[in-house]
Design brief:
The protein is mainly alpha-helical. It has one domain. It is about 70% helix and about 5% strand. The strands form two sheets. A two-stranded antiparallel sheet has the order 1-4. Strands 2-3 form a two-stranded antiparallel sheet. A hairpin with a 2-residue loop joins strand 2 and strand 3.
Length: about 300
């Protein structure tokens, strides 16, 4: 069975429909199902001694549950085009092309119109930092960073692992990414229990993050600047992976990203990427969305080409 063709079906479903509210209200979403399991394990196991060991076990349970469920479905698929279509429909909710664009556009539209209050409310839906004190440049910077990082986590990486291993690959990735987002934080509660989840997430994103940065750079208006920024600054980012797409987008747009920001009541001292450039402005967020569309067009086109070469 062509995993590339299966991913093409998932992409087309996502572009056409997103994940409709009426489906979400009735059955939720696979990520919320995984989240419920992680929430239960966090509250049942994250107590007392051996927190790191129990965190390893929790990660193993969640990943195994996702892989086994997806593997059973894949084994039951019929051969040929029907199996590809059904498999693509199953993978559909694990791709977030449309959702990513819509969430960032919800920030860009009021920001360009000068409605800072609405832009802050919209950016609070996609970033973890405090938006209340962000000016126009701060909102634009937060949204562009989220766009760059989540393009890797929400689109390139799941499709990459879907190409590698089909439904078990894309399901395993989403399980790992959800584990990291829920318990992979360096807080008193999750420093030990979430250690394994954070490390596994770093590992499975090594290739997709760099691939995302490369795609952004190549399709940008300034590919040489983007490649230089990525090669120079990605390793200075607080994340071993997020710096690659962020630095490439910063160089491609001619702005600086990352840098100090406020989480809760704490100010971080993170380094900038593309530090010599100016802060992003509202128009740069619109340009970032344009770069996102070109990059994802190239990525999805490459997957479609793989499907054709492999024989749909």
């Amino acid at each position: 069975m062509s995993f590339a063709a299966m991913m093409v079906v998932a992409i087309l479903c996502d572009l056409a429909l997103g994940w409709p509210d009426w489906i979400y209200r009735r059955v939720g979403h696979p990520v919320t199902w995984l989240g419920a399991v992680i929430f239960y394990l966090d509250h049942a196991w994250n107590r007392g001694r051996w927190a790191r060991f129990k965190g390893v076990a929790a990660a193993a349970v969640v990943i195994a549950l996702a892989v086994l469920s997806a593997g059973i479905v894949q084994e039951l698929l019929p051969d040929g085009l029907i199996g590809v279509v059904i498999g693509g429909i199953v993978a559909w909710p694990l791709v977030a092309l449309r959702s990513m664009h819509d969430h960032v556009r919800a920030v860009a539209t009021p920001l360009v119109q000068g409605d800072l209050h609405a832009a802050r409310a919209a950016v609070a839906m996609i970033v973890g930092r405090s938006p209340d004190q962000l000016d126009q440049a701060g909102v634009a910077r937060a949204a562009i960073e989220s766009l760059a990082e989540n393009t890797s986590d929400g689109i390139v990486a799941p499709l990459f692992w879907g190409l590698v291993a089909g439904l078990p690959g894309i399901a395993a990735y989403k399980a790992i990414n959800t584990l990291d987002s829920m318990i992979g934080h360096r807080t008193d509660r999750h420093e030990a229990f979430g250690w394994a989840s954070a490390r596994i997430d770093d590992l499975v994103n090594l290739i997709p993050a760099r691939l995302t940065g490369l795609i952004f750079a190549v399709v940008s208006r300034h590919p040489l600047f983007a490649l230089q920024a990525m090669a120079r600054d990605a390793r200075h980012h607080r994340s071993p992976n997020a710096g690659w797409p962020e630095a490439a987008m910063a160089g491609g747009l001619g702005v600086r990203l990352s840098g100090p920001r406020v989480y809760g009541d704490q100010l971080t001292d993170d380094a900038y990427v593309n530090a010599h450039a100016p802060d992003p402005q509202p128009v740069d967020l619109a340009r970032g969305l344009d770069l996102y569309r070109r990059a994802m067009g190239a990525w999805c086109g490459a997957i479609a080409l793989l499907a054709i070469v492999g024989g749909i």
